[in-house]
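Reviewers of the previous submission asked for a worked example of the structure-prediction workflow described in the proposal, so we include one complete record here. The input consisted solely of the amino acid sequence. No template or homolog information was supplied to the procedure at any stage.
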Amino acid sequence: MIRTVAMRFGGLLRKESLQILRDPSSIAIAFVMPVFLLFIFGYGVSLDAKRVPLAIVVEQPNRDTQSFAGAFAQSQYFVPIHFRNVRQAEAAMKRRRVAGIVWMRANFSRELLAAGVAPIAVIVNGVDANNARIVEGYLQSVWANWLTSYARDRGAPITLPVQVEQRVWFNPAVRSRDYLVPGLIAVIMTLTGALLTAMVVAREWERGTMEALMVTPASIHEIMLSKLVPYFVLGMGGMALSVAMALWLFGVPLHGSLWVLMGASALFLMAALGMGLLVSTFARNQFVAGQVAIIVTFLPAFMLSGFIFDIRNMPAPIRTITYLVAARYFVAILQSVFLAGNVWSIFIPNAIALLLIAGFFLGLARMLARKRLD
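From that input alone, the workflow returned the following structure tokens.
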């Protein structure tokens, strides 16, 4: 009996493996799509504010104004553009030629170190609020550093109320790529796992091969498991490719254990495959299956996982919904393993959540699956 079941299951696995090898779309979903998405997000999307065009207006040029303007030229964050007066600079900002204005008034040198006096005016374009806050912080940093250097060179008392010594943990280079690429792996695996199972099963319904499986002695458990195993291996292969690109192409550090990363990825992929199987129980058309898989898996993983948008800043009802999104827990593990290391207080509860979600979707898919054609 056991030998018969093993031979039958081996035949189903062989059939699925041959179908993968003969179907280029499965290979494309597992390997080509991750590379495409990683290239787009790794190189095309950045939350960093670098080489920001900045208008410099000097009412009365002298050695001090020249020194301060030079501080912006030496910064990697700004590209200074000089204007004769503030009206020209404001016009340039309205046309979005510059993102901010630094206006040095005529009394700049005289009031430089006087308490309670602002010798410069700063205007920042607030259309993009996040970018405006970043630019404002960079401007304050350049001003504080230059003012400290100016006072030290002249032996003058400095009026800065606080001397800030910054230390950035986990991402000392402050590169958004190191933050985005690990989170993108979760989005890729969500889309890969759900599409691989949902569309492949729907394709079998369209081609009539599912009906042939239904009349075989194979049980529904064997049929479902034969669908999971090959696409689990394929999905893990795509995940390995994504991690390799993150490490060696984009230079993202991996401070944690590779085995921890693989274990969390296996749990999450089982959840994604379970979602795909669940979609396939309702959609027996490839187009419908693909659209449903994108809507119920990819979009929540992209918008509600913390991949780009901080969950803590979301309204309370939306934060509650995020607890139902498996990618939320996987993104937390990925960012921890890549940037901080094996933080078990983060890994264990999120891994348990992934295990429960995977069990729920796989169990629900099994409960709804029937070995019949209706």
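The chain is about 65% helix and 5% strand. We consider this example representative of the routine output the project will generate in years two and three.
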